[in-house]
Amino acid sequence: MSHAILLISCPDRKGITATVTNFVYQNNGNIVHADQHIDTSGNYSKTSRGVILSASEGHPQVGNTFFMRIEWDLKNFRLNRAKIRGHFAKIARKFGMTWELYFTDQKVRTAIFVSRHLHCLYDLLLRHRQGQLSCEIPLIISNHSDAKAVASDFGIKFMQVPITPLNKSAQEKKEIKVLKQAMVDLIVLARYHQVLTRAFVQTFSNKIINIHHSFLPAFAGKNPYLQAFKRGVKIIGATSHFVSEELDAGPIIEQDVAHISHRNSLEDLVQQGEDLEKMVLSRAVKLFLQHKILTYGNKTVIFD
Amino acid sequence: MSHAILLISCPDRKGITATVTNFVYQNNGNIVHADQHIDTSGNYSKTSRGVILSASEGHPQVGNTFFMRIEWDLKNFRLNRAKIRGHFAKIARKFGMTWELYFTDQKVRTAIFVSRHLHCLYDLLLRHRQGQLSCEIPLIISNHSDAKAVASDFGIKFMQVPITPLNKSAQEKKEIKVLKQAMVDLIVLARYHQVLTRAFVQTFSNKIINIHHSFLPAFAGKNPYLQAFKRGVKIIGATSHFVSEELDAGPIIEQDVAHISHRNSLEDLVQQGEDLEKMVLSRAVKLFLQHKILTYGNKTVIFD
Amino acid sequence: MSHAILLISCPDRKGITATVTNFVYQNNGNIVHADQHIDTSGNYSKTSRGVILSASEGHPQVGNTFFMRIEWDLKNFRLNRAKIRGHFAKIARKFGMTWELYFTDQKVRTAIFVSRHLHCLYDLLLRHRQGQLSCEIPLIISNHSDAKAVASDFGIKFMQVPITPLNKSAQEKKEIKVLKQAMVDLIVLARYHQVLTRAFVQTFSNKIINIHHSFLPAFAGKNPYLQAFKRGVKIIGATSHFVSEELDAGPIIEQDVAHISHRNSLEDLVQQGEDLEKMVLSRAVKLFLQHKILTYGNKTVIFD
Amino acid sequence: MSHAILLISCPDRKGITATVTNFVYQNNGNIVHADQHIDTSGNYSKTSRGVILSASEGHPQVGNTFFMRIEWDLKNFRLNRAKIRGHFAKIARKFGMTWELYFTDQKVRTAIFVSRHLHCLYDLLLRHRQGQLSCEIPLIISNHSDAKAVASDFGIKFMQVPITPLNKSAQEKKEIKVLKQAMVDLIVLARYHQVLTRAFVQTFSNKIINIHHSFLPAFAGKNPYLQAFKRGVKIIGATSHFVSEELDAGPIIEQDVAHISHRNSLEDLVQQGEDLEKMVLSRAVKLFLQHKILTYGNKTVIFD
């Protein structure tokens, strides 16, 4: 059976949860998951430890912000899908909500971008085959040809789009066209080693997930393992995040780390790091596919 | 300002969340935290991987179970504390709820039991002094005298109650009397090396938190570090759990582990393990003090 | 260039390290890795904390035990391979050493056994293809046919050997014959769901690595994820170990864990656990291939 | 019984290990611990994955570097302490070694600097009292008076040295004088919130251990928890490192992290972080006291 999922954010005030859950209940829905979060950092002034967080620094609102994810079983629900949207719009207006509505039987259409390191691509495709990632993958795009055979093995359309500084803008326009035709809702950069243009990022705002092979904000940019090796850190990490206009600075979805020592060569860091990358990226993709991520400002709420 | 907290569990059905949140809203309460969980394991029959979980094995109910924690600000709330209890009782009856009501300005009165290893006791007292543990600690009880000076340093009443196999039952009766007089709601066994009698455990059902120095169910019973050392495991752990009648088998609240190697001596295991014990026990105590733990069967729901 | 590796264990006494390193130096070898470990647990009597470890419990020796791994570059080494063996045998006799000699250009021949869960098999084969596992894989054996296509994709010989209680002994004899013909030095049970006979285990003593999907010794035997789910643990784990005659009780090579919560279904445990299995098994295999594991009694020394 | 410990680093060449272990053996010493490490990053040019590490970037040497820690029992050793130094100096000259010699019965004299957050101070003092830190603590220095009572409880001399931008240089000169009089070999900055002058740092080069409350190099400088909170990271960390002239940029000794979520307030980050700080700092101090740390360039070799 299909479920409906609402993702909501709005200024906090009394009655939001009651109103939303009543909406589901009055129409005979059975809630299977509900989680809410209230961000109070807009109110931060001075903690007991003397730390000051000005409301104006990245948190424009003065009051609290309310976030909610609610999922209910559509069996015997009195409203059809079009009407859910219409009826809920009235509630949303009343509370000034930003909201998204999803149905679990409509799978997210996902494109994977990759360059020459194929471990994350393999990992995603194997998880998809094993049923861990509930999505459709109509397309793999690469600036190189290395992934062509893998795409073929898994029966997925492969498109090679070579990128140079000169042709990038034109090539991305082609990609955007293809991605729109394929009705793609999520783009996964599974070690895609090209910086996307501002135009591309804005076209798919909060719909592009990247894996960066360090615990951001440390070691942003190129060659993070080499940076880590040179700095002599005792942990390495990986970070999955939404792509924003500033490089490696978008909202973080998931991070993980592994301990290393002086015994580990740069090659060891790369190999251990690849395991982190696979896990951290696949977890972020899974959270997106389950509509469990809300972004606000440069942060994420994860309804796990 | 004070908050009210409701902890609820009942058979799942439509309308529970809506009814509870409406109760708060209609009486002009502002929800600051709400989390729910639906346990469906009573329904488990056969997963896609062929694992079978019979409904009769430890999960007597056939349907789903609903759990909720809701916390709201009492400022301008229309019902006083006595009336909250009365009004909510009607809702609870309707849904067959097991429920508890707390107010954040009524601090949990906590007694600490300890034997001769004092690291967890020190840790709890320092956290309490730093404001991390919001409780009152009227009493420290020990079967030895080692902790007497520590109790005195922190200005807490100390009671030495020597235990022998012969006097245990009588001594525990004395302890129960003292604990009741001190209106103790939580007993923390901070490395208390005596098995409590069934009578004692039943008197404080789900109100006694123990720290066991292994990742249970491995290495239950005596000398877990020695057991771990002999078995040659590569991780050690600590487990905080409610004390039930069966030794080291009660509902688990929190666990953590650390990696070890052949280089580590038994002494190293003990020292690293003590760090785990302190963190795992203090986290469990904190969750209890915040009324974030619900037990069902032999498991816990942690509303973090 | 090729390296030589010596793995040594013997009763501890003065001069072992000096003698072994001199052997390499006098013959013009350049040591690239040397690590030693002295196990003193045979001496354990009573630690400062009152823990008693009797020398007779699992540690038959009364004195200390010495372990060493030494690896040197064979470039310009004065002894050829046959002579290394002959010359070192004299040193070994003098100190009563148990020893093994390897050369890094002689790759370990590895057979993989698998049943119906293929994630560990895929993981090993992909790592092998990417150059992370320096071995030859002449053979995949299964009691089912599921892995046949995977073996074919990777160009590895596949052998299906159905096992029933009645035919097990006879079938294993066939397997042993094939494994010996293929000169297999390592058998990896990558989720092979058959208990091997004592005869089979003895034939490949300390050469069979299994992955068990729990943090042993917790949840040995069948359905560990289901056992963990029912017990309500807050961490799950995976353990790679040498197979010994007692089920899931052999020397542990590597373990890792992941945190879970009440929100996680049994399916979630299985999926998260599979990631642990892949990492823990591949690390153990890699350590074996690099000749970094020494077993003693029921424990391992890992020269990482 | 007392042990001797040698910490050695030099350009790698044949025969170093043999020569050093022979020195111990010929003089009738029993080696209880020996570990070596060869850093080959000076040779790095291009890995199989296309990562380039120029020898000139932070690794001035072109060849490999050899590191060793060797510890032996002095019982029946033929050389007295003065002679050990003299005899070994000849070996050291031959191989161009940088070396340090320690004896385990000469405890490191340790001064603790602290400002107003006392959790790390308490932690170190309790571990010291429990016998986990084998050192002498003659002195606690603070720019505030908060730690005075703690110092008094533990019977340690307390010195308050208020620091202003104007008096810093003069006050540090006073401190240096006192520290030298007290024969201090290690200074632990247990949350000391003053940047030390270049002169002070140079006086105690590689003898000052700081705890920074982030996973460096992320969030160097002020208010790392607030920086982490604003960035929306999913992990927080702590780093212990030697203090060098550049702020928060010295050789890293130990790091650890904890997972956080959007549910965690800034206060939560601070509280969880303090647990990390305590563990990471105490581990670094312990490694120093056991003479297990070697620095080279801006990195450390940890002989654990």
Summarize the structure.
The structure is a homotetramer of 304-residue chains. Chain A is an alpha/beta fold. Chain A folds into 2 domains: 3-103, ACT domain (Alpha-Beta Plaits, 2-Layer Sandwich); 108-302, Rossmann fold (3-Layer(aba) Sandwich).
Give a written overview of the molecule.
The structure is a homotetramer of 304-residue chains. By secondary structure, the first copy, chain A, is an alpha/beta fold. The first copy, chain A, folds into two domains: 3-103, ACT domain (Alpha-Beta Plaits, 2-Layer Sandwich); 108-302, Formyl transferase, N-terminal domain (Rossmann fold, 3-Layer(aba) Sandwich), CATH 3.40.50.170. Helix content of chain A is 31%, strand content 28%. In chain A, the strands form three sheets. A seven-stranded mixed beta sheet of chain A has the order 7-6-5-8-9-10-11. Chain A has a four-stranded antiparallel beta sheet with strand order 2-3-1-4, covered by helices on one side. In chain A, helix 3 packs parallel to helix 8. Chain A is globular. The first copy, chain A, starts with a strand and ends with a strand. Chains in contact: A-B, A-C, A-D, B-C, B-D, C-D. The interface between B and C is large, with 50 and 51 residues.
Question: How would you summarize the topology of this molecule?
Answer:
The structure is a homotetramer of 304-residue chains.
Chain A: E1 3-11, H1 16-26, E2 30-39, E3 65-73, H2 81-95, E4 98-103, E5 108-114, H3 119-129, E6 135-142, H4 148-153, E7 158-160, H5 168-181, E8 186-189, H6 198-203, E9 208-212, H7 224-231, E10 235-242, E11 252-259, H8 266-289, E12 293-296, E13 299-302
Parallel strand pairs in A: 5-6, 5-8, 6-7, 8-9
Antiparallel strand pairs in A: 1-3, 1-4, 2-3, 9-10, 10-11, 12-13
Helix pairs in contact in A: 3-8
